[in-house]
Amino acid sequence: MNHTPIEGFSKLTKKGKIDWLVNEYLDGNSDYQNILNQYWNDNADLQKLHDEFSENTISNFYMPYGIAPNFLIDGKLFALPMAVEESSVVAAASKAAKFWIDKGGFKTTIINTEKLGHTHFIFNTESHKLQHFFNFKLKKKLFEATESITANMRNRGGGILEIKLVDKTAEMPNYYQLKASFDTVDSMGANFINSCLEQFGKTLKEEISLEQDFTQEEKDSLQVVMNILSNFTPDCIVRAEVSCKIEDLKDDSGISNEEFARKFKQAVTIAEIEPFRATTHNKGIMNGVDAVVIATGNDFRATEACAHAYAAKDGRYSSLTHCTTDNGIFRFWIDLPISVGVVGGLTNLHPLVKFSLALLGKPSAQELMSILAVSGLAQNFGALRSLVTTGIQKGHMKMHLFNILNQMGATEEEKQHFVTYFKDKTVTHHEVINEFNRLRAQ
Protein backbone atom coordinates (compact mmCIF):
# COMPACT_ATOMS: atom_id res chain seq x y z
CA MET A 1 0.00 0.00 0.00
CA ASN A 2 1.48 3.33 -1.09
CA HIS A 3 0.96 6.61 0.73
CA THR A 4 1.78 10.19 -0.09
CA PRO A 5 4.45 12.01 1.99
CA ILE A 6 3.23 15.15 3.72
CA GLU A 7 4.88 18.53 4.13
CA GLY A 8 4.08 20.67 7.16
CA PHE A 9 2.33 18.01 9.22
CA SER A 10 3.39 19.72 12.45
CA LYS A 11 1.70 22.95 11.31
CA LEU A 12 -1.73 21.33 10.94
CA THR A 13 -4.31 21.70 13.69
CA LYS A 14 -4.98 18.62 15.81
CA LYS A 15 -8.16 17.98 13.82
CA GLY A 16 -6.22 18.46 10.60
CA LYS A 17 -3.62 15.91 11.68
CA ILE A 18 -6.32 13.38 12.57
CA ASP A 19 -8.26 13.94 9.33
CA TRP A 20 -5.09 13.43 7.28
CA LEU A 21 -4.09 10.26 9.16
CA VAL A 22 -7.54 8.70 8.92
CA ASN A 23 -7.94 9.52 5.23
CA GLU A 24 -4.39 8.61 4.23
CA TYR A 25 -3.83 5.48 6.35
CA LEU A 26 -7.20 4.29 7.65
CA ASP A 27 -9.52 4.49 4.62
CA GLY A 28 -11.47 7.40 6.07
CA ASN A 29 -12.98 5.19 8.78
CA SER A 30 -14.65 7.52 11.29
CA ASP A 31 -14.45 4.83 14.01
CA TYR A 32 -10.76 5.63 14.35
CA GLN A 33 -11.52 9.31 14.77
CA ASN A 34 -13.93 8.43 17.55
CA ILE A 35 -11.29 6.31 19.32
CA LEU A 36 -8.89 9.25 19.38
CA ASN A 37 -11.58 11.72 20.47
CA GLN A 38 -12.87 9.62 23.36
CA TYR A 39 -9.45 9.74 25.01
CA TRP A 40 -9.38 13.53 25.03
CA ASN A 41 -9.91 15.13 28.41
CA ASP A 42 -13.21 16.99 28.78
CA ASN A 43 -11.36 19.85 30.46
CA ALA A 44 -10.00 21.87 27.51
CA ASP A 45 -7.23 23.51 29.53
CA LEU A 46 -6.04 20.17 30.89
CA GLN A 47 -6.11 18.66 27.41
CA LYS A 48 -4.10 21.59 26.06
CA LEU A 49 -1.53 21.02 28.82
CA HIS A 50 -1.19 17.37 27.78
CA ASP A 51 -1.01 18.30 24.10
CA GLU A 52 1.97 20.54 24.81
CA PHE A 53 4.01 17.87 26.63
CA SER A 54 5.15 16.53 23.26
CA GLU A 55 4.94 17.18 19.50
CA ASN A 56 2.25 16.29 16.95
CA THR A 57 -0.11 15.09 19.68
CA ILE A 58 -3.53 13.88 18.58
CA SER A 59 -4.81 12.12 21.71
CA ASN A 60 -3.82 10.70 25.10
CA PHE A 61 -2.62 7.14 25.70
CA TYR A 62 -3.93 5.85 29.01
CA MET A 63 -2.12 3.43 31.31
CA PRO A 64 -3.60 1.94 34.47
CA TYR A 65 -2.57 3.93 37.54
CA GLY A 66 -2.56 1.67 40.58
CA ILE A 67 -1.48 1.72 44.21
CA ALA A 68 0.75 -0.75 46.04
CA PRO A 69 0.19 -0.17 49.79
CA ASN A 70 1.97 -1.25 52.97
CA PHE A 71 5.56 -0.41 52.03
CA LEU A 72 7.57 0.11 55.21
CA ILE A 73 10.69 1.96 54.03
CA ASP A 74 13.26 3.16 56.55
CA GLY A 75 10.61 3.17 59.27
CA LYS A 76 8.00 5.12 57.27
CA LEU A 77 4.88 3.64 55.70
CA PHE A 78 4.25 4.36 52.02
CA ALA A 79 1.62 3.63 49.39
CA LEU A 80 3.42 3.52 46.03
CA PRO A 81 1.82 4.91 42.86
CA MET A 82 2.45 2.60 39.89
CA ALA A 83 1.62 3.34 36.25
CA VAL A 84 1.86 -0.02 34.49
CA GLU A 85 -0.21 -2.09 32.08
CA GLU A 86 1.22 -5.54 32.86
CA SER A 87 -0.93 -7.89 34.92
CA SER A 88 0.34 -8.89 38.38
CA VAL A 89 3.02 -6.19 38.78
CA VAL A 90 1.08 -4.15 41.35
CA ALA A 91 -0.22 -7.30 43.02
CA ALA A 92 3.26 -8.83 43.35
CA ALA A 93 4.72 -5.61 44.76
CA SER A 94 1.86 -5.28 47.24
CA LYS A 95 2.20 -8.89 48.36
CA ALA A 96 5.95 -8.47 48.89
CA ALA A 97 5.39 -5.26 50.87
CA LYS A 98 2.90 -7.05 53.11
CA PHE A 99 5.30 -9.97 53.56
CA TRP A 100 8.09 -7.72 54.89
CA ILE A 101 6.06 -5.21 56.90
CA ASP A 102 6.29 -7.23 60.12
CA LYS A 103 9.95 -8.15 59.56
CA GLY A 104 11.37 -4.65 59.74
CA GLY A 105 10.44 -3.58 56.24
CA PHE A 106 12.89 -2.28 53.66
CA LYS A 107 16.13 -0.48 54.55
CA THR A 108 17.88 1.83 52.09
CA THR A 109 21.25 3.57 51.80
CA ILE A 110 22.22 6.28 49.33
CA ILE A 111 25.71 5.24 48.26
CA ASN A 112 26.40 8.21 45.98
CA THR A 113 24.59 10.84 43.88
CA GLU A 114 27.12 11.80 41.19
CA LYS A 115 25.92 12.19 37.61
CA LEU A 116 28.19 12.26 34.57
CA GLY A 117 28.60 14.03 31.26
CA HIS A 118 31.24 14.29 28.58
CA THR A 119 32.65 16.60 25.96
CA HIS A 120 33.92 14.23 23.29
CA PHE A 121 36.64 15.68 21.08
CA ILE A 122 39.33 14.81 18.55
CA PHE A 123 42.73 16.49 18.90
CA ASN A 124 45.91 15.47 17.14
CA THR A 125 48.57 16.29 19.71
CA GLU A 126 50.80 14.56 22.20
CA SER A 127 48.84 13.28 25.17
CA HIS A 128 51.21 14.60 27.84
CA LYS A 129 51.13 18.03 26.25
CA LEU A 130 47.32 18.15 26.38
CA GLN A 131 47.32 16.85 29.94
CA HIS A 132 49.70 19.60 31.05
CA PHE A 133 47.51 22.22 29.35
CA PHE A 134 44.41 20.80 31.05
CA ASN A 135 45.98 20.66 34.52
CA PHE A 136 47.49 24.13 34.56
CA LYS A 137 45.08 26.19 32.42
CA LEU A 138 41.98 24.59 30.93
CA LYS A 139 40.40 23.04 34.03
CA LYS A 140 40.26 26.37 35.85
CA LYS A 141 38.86 28.09 32.75
CA LEU A 142 36.10 25.48 32.44
CA PHE A 143 34.92 26.14 35.99
CA GLU A 144 35.08 29.91 35.44
CA ALA A 145 33.22 29.76 32.11
CA THR A 146 30.28 27.89 33.65
CA GLU A 147 29.90 29.98 36.80
CA SER A 148 26.80 31.77 35.55
CA ILE A 149 25.21 28.45 34.51
CA THR A 150 25.94 26.74 37.83
CA ALA A 151 25.15 29.65 40.17
CA ASN A 152 21.59 28.59 41.06
CA MET A 153 22.56 24.93 41.37
CA ARG A 154 25.49 25.83 43.64
CA ASN A 155 23.12 27.86 45.82
CA ARG A 156 21.04 24.69 46.27
CA GLY A 157 24.11 22.69 47.26
CA GLY A 158 24.97 21.14 43.90
CA GLY A 159 27.02 22.00 40.85
CA ILE A 160 30.07 20.63 39.03
CA LEU A 161 31.99 18.30 41.33
CA GLU A 162 35.00 17.43 39.19
CA ILE A 163 36.35 17.68 35.65
CA LYS A 164 38.90 15.23 34.25
CA LEU A 165 40.68 14.78 30.96
CA VAL A 166 40.34 11.21 29.73
CA ASP A 167 42.75 9.83 27.11
CA LYS A 168 40.90 7.39 24.82
CA THR A 169 43.48 7.39 22.02
CA ALA A 170 44.25 3.70 22.53
CA GLU A 171 40.68 2.94 21.47
CA MET A 172 40.22 5.59 18.77
CA PRO A 173 42.91 7.79 17.18
CA ASN A 174 43.17 11.28 18.74
CA TYR A 175 40.02 10.77 20.84
CA TYR A 176 39.77 12.51 24.23
CA GLN A 177 37.03 13.36 26.70
CA LEU A 178 36.34 16.06 29.21
CA LYS A 179 34.57 13.94 31.82
CA ALA A 180 32.60 15.90 34.41
CA SER A 181 30.69 14.78 37.47
CA PHE A 182 27.70 16.73 38.78
CA ASP A 183 25.40 16.97 41.77
CA THR A 184 22.00 18.17 40.58
CA VAL A 185 20.30 17.96 44.02
CA ASP A 186 16.52 17.42 43.52
CA SER A 187 16.43 17.78 39.73
CA MET A 188 17.24 15.05 37.25
CA GLY A 189 19.54 17.70 35.79
CA ALA A 190 19.75 16.78 32.11
CA ASN A 191 19.36 20.35 30.82
CA PHE A 192 21.74 21.71 33.46
CA ILE A 193 24.41 19.13 32.66
CA ASN A 194 24.10 19.56 28.89
CA SER A 195 24.30 23.36 29.19
CA CYS A 196 27.53 23.05 31.19
CA LEU A 197 28.97 20.58 28.68
CA GLU A 198 28.15 22.77 25.69
CA GLN A 199 30.00 25.61 27.39
CA PHE A 200 32.92 23.22 27.94
CA GLY A 201 33.04 22.62 24.20
CA LYS A 202 33.11 26.36 23.45
CA THR A 203 35.73 27.07 26.11
CA LEU A 204 37.89 24.20 24.90
CA LYS A 205 37.94 25.67 21.39
CA GLU A 206 38.65 29.17 22.63
CA GLU A 207 41.46 28.21 24.99
CA ILE A 208 43.21 25.91 22.53
CA SER A 209 43.08 28.61 19.85
CA LEU A 210 44.86 30.99 22.27
CA GLU A 211 47.42 28.49 23.60
CA GLN A 212 50.93 29.20 22.32
CA ASP A 213 52.22 25.70 23.15
CA PHE A 214 50.10 24.20 20.37
CA THR A 215 51.08 24.56 16.72
CA GLN A 216 48.63 25.87 14.17
CA GLU A 217 48.41 22.39 12.71
CA GLU A 218 47.44 21.02 16.11
CA LYS A 219 44.89 23.77 16.63
CA ASP A 220 43.35 23.07 13.23
CA SER A 221 42.95 19.39 14.12
CA LEU A 222 40.59 20.08 17.03
CA GLN A 223 37.05 18.79 16.54
CA VAL A 224 34.46 18.95 19.27
CA VAL A 225 32.29 16.00 18.30
CA MET A 226 29.53 16.33 20.91
CA ASN A 227 28.67 17.49 24.41
CA ILE A 228 26.18 15.24 26.19
CA LEU A 229 25.28 13.81 29.57
CA SER A 230 25.57 10.06 30.15
CA ASN A 231 22.57 8.05 31.28
CA PHE A 232 25.03 5.55 32.77
CA THR A 233 25.44 6.78 36.34
CA PRO A 234 27.38 4.10 38.25
CA ASP A 235 28.16 6.65 40.97
CA CYS A 236 24.52 7.67 41.49
CA ILE A 237 23.43 4.58 43.32
CA VAL A 238 21.10 3.42 46.07
CA ARG A 239 20.95 0.15 47.99
CA ALA A 240 17.67 -1.36 49.21
CA GLU A 241 17.55 -4.52 51.27
CA VAL A 242 15.46 -6.82 53.42
CA SER A 243 16.61 -9.38 55.95
CA CYS A 244 15.26 -11.68 58.65
CA LYS A 245 15.99 -14.97 60.35
CA ILE A 246 15.33 -17.88 58.02
CA GLU A 247 13.01 -19.30 60.67
CA ASP A 248 10.84 -16.18 60.28
CA LEU A 249 10.37 -16.39 56.51
CA LYS A 250 7.00 -18.14 57.00
CA ASP A 251 6.16 -18.78 53.36
CA ASP A 252 2.64 -20.15 52.91
CA SER A 253 3.33 -22.30 49.85
CA GLY A 254 3.78 -25.52 51.81
CA ILE A 255 7.58 -25.80 51.68
CA SER A 256 9.73 -25.27 54.78
CA ASN A 257 11.39 -21.95 55.54
CA GLU A 258 14.81 -23.53 55.03
CA GLU A 259 13.79 -24.97 51.66
CA PHE A 260 12.34 -21.63 50.58
CA ALA A 261 15.54 -19.76 51.52
CA ARG A 262 17.71 -22.34 49.75
CA LYS A 263 15.69 -22.33 46.53
CA PHE A 264 15.37 -18.53 46.56
CA LYS A 265 19.14 -18.09 46.86
CA GLN A 266 19.68 -20.61 44.06
CA ALA A 267 17.34 -18.63 41.82
CA VAL A 268 19.28 -15.41 42.46
CA THR A 269 22.61 -17.18 41.89
CA ILE A 270 21.36 -18.50 38.55
CA ALA A 271 20.52 -14.92 37.53
CA GLU A 272 24.01 -13.84 38.63
CA ILE A 273 25.76 -16.39 36.39
CA GLU A 274 23.34 -16.91 33.48
CA PRO A 275 22.66 -13.90 31.18
CA PHE A 276 19.57 -15.50 29.63
CA ARG A 277 17.95 -15.71 33.06
CA ALA A 278 19.42 -12.39 34.22
CA THR A 279 17.70 -10.53 31.39
CA THR A 280 14.23 -11.70 32.43
CA HIS A 281 15.14 -11.40 36.11
CA ASN A 282 16.17 -7.74 35.68
CA LYS A 283 13.19 -7.02 33.44
CA GLY A 284 11.01 -8.02 36.38
CA ILE A 285 12.92 -5.66 38.65
CA MET A 286 12.34 -2.83 36.21
CA ASN A 287 8.60 -3.64 36.14
CA GLY A 288 8.54 -2.31 39.67
CA VAL A 289 11.00 0.52 39.14
CA ASP A 290 9.55 1.86 35.88
CA ALA A 291 5.97 1.84 37.15
CA VAL A 292 6.89 4.32 39.90
CA VAL A 293 9.28 6.23 37.61
CA ILE A 294 6.45 6.85 35.14
CA ALA A 295 3.98 7.74 37.89
CA THR A 296 6.41 10.37 39.21
CA GLY A 297 7.08 11.92 35.80
CA ASN A 298 10.63 10.68 35.37
CA ASP A 299 12.42 9.16 32.37
CA PHE A 300 11.96 5.38 32.39
CA ARG A 301 14.10 4.95 29.26
CA ALA A 302 17.05 6.50 31.09
CA THR A 303 16.52 4.34 34.17
CA GLU A 304 16.28 1.23 32.00
CA ALA A 305 19.43 2.02 30.01
CA CYS A 306 21.40 2.77 33.16
CA ALA A 307 20.27 -0.34 35.02
CA HIS A 308 21.11 -2.67 32.15
CA ALA A 309 24.50 -1.03 31.54
CA TYR A 310 25.26 -1.45 35.24
CA ALA A 311 24.19 -5.09 35.10
CA ALA A 312 26.91 -5.63 32.47
CA LYS A 313 29.63 -3.51 34.13
CA ASP A 314 31.86 -6.50 34.93
CA GLY A 315 31.89 -7.75 31.33
CA ARG A 316 28.96 -10.15 31.61
CA TYR A 317 25.29 -9.31 32.01
CA SER A 318 24.19 -10.30 35.51
CA SER A 319 21.53 -9.92 38.20
CA LEU A 320 20.96 -6.55 39.84
CA THR A 321 19.82 -8.29 43.03
CA HIS A 322 21.81 -10.54 45.37
CA CYS A 323 21.02 -12.93 48.19
CA THR A 324 22.84 -14.58 51.11
CA THR A 325 21.64 -17.11 53.67
CA ASP A 326 24.60 -17.08 56.08
CA ASN A 327 24.40 -17.85 59.80
CA GLY A 328 20.66 -18.44 59.67
CA ILE A 329 19.93 -14.97 58.23
CA PHE A 330 18.16 -14.44 54.91
CA ARG A 331 19.36 -11.22 53.23
CA PHE A 332 18.19 -9.92 49.86
CA TRP A 333 19.31 -6.62 48.31
CA ILE A 334 19.71 -4.50 45.20
CA ASP A 335 22.28 -1.88 44.25
CA LEU A 336 20.44 0.29 41.73
CA PRO A 337 22.06 3.11 39.75
CA ILE A 338 19.32 5.62 39.06
CA SER A 339 19.06 9.30 38.27
CA VAL A 340 15.69 10.94 38.95
CA GLY A 341 14.28 14.32 39.89
CA VAL A 342 11.39 15.78 41.84
CA VAL A 343 11.58 19.30 40.38
CA GLY A 344 11.52 20.39 36.75
CA GLY A 345 10.11 18.53 33.76
CA LEU A 346 6.63 17.05 34.22
CA THR A 347 6.89 17.16 38.02
CA ASN A 348 5.52 20.70 38.12
CA LEU A 349 3.03 20.25 35.26
CA HIS A 350 1.33 16.86 35.07
CA PRO A 351 -1.55 16.69 37.59
CA LEU A 352 -1.15 12.96 38.26
CA VAL A 353 2.60 13.36 38.69
CA LYS A 354 1.97 16.06 41.27
CA PHE A 355 -0.52 13.72 42.95
CA SER A 356 2.06 10.90 43.01
CA LEU A 357 4.72 13.08 44.61
CA ALA A 358 2.23 14.38 47.17
CA LEU A 359 1.18 10.79 47.94
CA LEU A 360 4.84 9.95 48.60
CA GLY A 361 5.18 12.89 50.98
CA LYS A 362 6.90 15.20 48.47
CA PRO A 363 10.19 13.29 48.61
CA SER A 364 13.64 14.64 47.82
CA ALA A 365 15.41 13.11 44.82
CA GLN A 366 17.39 10.88 47.18
CA GLU A 367 14.24 9.71 48.93
CA LEU A 368 12.67 8.93 45.56
CA MET A 369 15.78 6.93 44.63
CA SER A 370 15.21 4.84 47.76
CA ILE A 371 11.53 4.31 46.97
CA LEU A 372 12.34 3.21 43.42
CA ALA A 373 14.99 0.72 44.55
CA VAL A 374 12.53 -0.73 47.08
CA SER A 375 9.84 -1.06 44.40
CA GLY A 376 12.24 -2.99 42.18
CA LEU A 377 13.41 -5.22 45.02
CA ALA A 378 9.84 -5.95 46.11
CA GLN A 379 8.80 -6.84 42.57
CA ASN A 380 11.78 -9.18 42.23
CA PHE A 381 11.06 -10.80 45.59
CA GLY A 382 7.46 -11.41 44.57
CA ALA A 383 8.45 -12.93 41.23
CA LEU A 384 11.15 -15.19 42.68
CA ARG A 385 8.87 -16.27 45.52
CA SER A 386 6.33 -17.47 42.97
CA LEU A 387 8.95 -19.07 40.71
CA VAL A 388 10.49 -21.23 43.42
CA THR A 389 7.15 -22.25 44.97
CA THR A 390 3.88 -22.34 43.00
CA GLY A 391 5.26 -21.22 39.64
CA ILE A 392 4.82 -17.85 37.99
CA GLN A 393 1.77 -18.68 35.87
CA LYS A 394 -0.69 -19.43 38.66
CA GLY A 395 -0.74 -15.87 39.97
CA HIS A 396 0.01 -14.17 36.65
CA MET A 397 -2.78 -15.89 34.75
CA LYS A 398 -5.26 -15.21 37.53
CA MET A 399 -4.53 -11.51 37.08
CA HIS A 400 -4.64 -11.96 33.29
CA LEU A 401 -8.07 -13.64 33.45
CA PHE A 402 -10.01 -10.38 33.11
CA ASN A 403 -7.95 -9.36 30.06
CA ILE A 404 -8.97 -12.60 28.34
CA LEU A 405 -12.62 -12.21 29.36
CA ASN A 406 -12.75 -8.60 28.21
CA GLN A 407 -11.38 -9.64 24.81
CA MET A 408 -14.22 -12.18 24.59
CA GLY A 409 -16.88 -9.67 25.58
CA ALA A 410 -17.85 -11.35 28.85
CA THR A 411 -20.60 -9.80 30.97
CA GLU A 412 -20.06 -8.89 34.64
CA GLU A 413 -22.11 -11.92 35.65
CA GLU A 414 -19.95 -14.18 33.50
CA LYS A 415 -16.77 -12.66 34.97
CA GLN A 416 -17.94 -13.52 38.48
CA HIS A 417 -18.63 -17.09 37.31
CA PHE A 418 -15.03 -17.38 36.14
CA VAL A 419 -13.63 -16.01 39.39
CA THR A 420 -15.46 -18.80 41.22
CA TYR A 421 -14.63 -21.40 38.57
CA PHE A 422 -10.87 -20.79 38.80
CA LYS A 423 -10.77 -20.43 42.58
CA ASP A 424 -9.11 -23.85 42.89
CA LYS A 425 -7.81 -24.23 39.33
CA THR A 426 -4.89 -22.82 37.34
CA VAL A 427 -6.01 -20.31 34.72
CA THR A 428 -5.06 -21.20 31.14
CA HIS A 429 -6.20 -19.48 27.96
CA HIS A 430 -7.45 -22.79 26.57
CA GLU A 431 -9.53 -23.56 29.66
CA VAL A 432 -11.04 -20.06 29.71
CA ILE A 433 -12.21 -20.45 26.11
CA ASN A 434 -13.63 -23.93 26.76
CA GLU A 435 -15.57 -22.81 29.82
CA PHE A 436 -16.73 -19.60 28.09
CA ASN A 437 -18.10 -21.58 25.14
CA ARG A 438 -19.78 -24.07 27.49
CA LEU A 439 -21.35 -21.23 29.47
CA ARG A 440 -22.65 -19.46 26.39
CA ALA A 441 -24.04 -22.72 24.95
CA GLN A 442 -26.32 -23.23 27.96
Automatic annotation (TrEMBL):
Domain of life: Bacteria
Matching CDD domains: HMG-CoA_reductase_classII
InterPro entries, per the entry: HMG_CoA_Rdtase, HMG_CoA_Rdtase_bac-typ, HMG_CoA_Rdtase_cat_sf, HMG_CoA_Rdtase_NAD(P)-bd_sf, HMG_CoA_Rdtase_sub-bd_dom_sf
First-level EC class: oxidoreductase
Catalytic activity reported: (R)-mevalonate + 2 NAD(+) + CoA = (3S)-3-hydroxy-3-methylglutaryl-CoA + 2 NADH + 2 H(+)
Gene3D superfamilies: 1.10.8.660, 3-hydroxy-3-methylglutaryl-coenzyme A Reductase, Chain A, domain 2 (3.90.770.10)
E.C. number(s) listed in UniProt: 1.1.1.88
Record GO terms (molecular function): hydroxymethylglutaryl-CoA reductase (NADH) activity
Pathway connected to this protein: Metabolic intermediate metabolism; (R)-mevalonate degradation; (S)-3-hydroxy-3-methylglutaryl-CoA from (R)-mevalonate: step 1/1
UniProt KW keywords: NAD, Oxidoreductase
Recorded family membership: Belongs to the HMG-CoA reductase family.
Protein name in UniProt: 3-hydroxy-3-methylglutaryl coenzyme A reductase
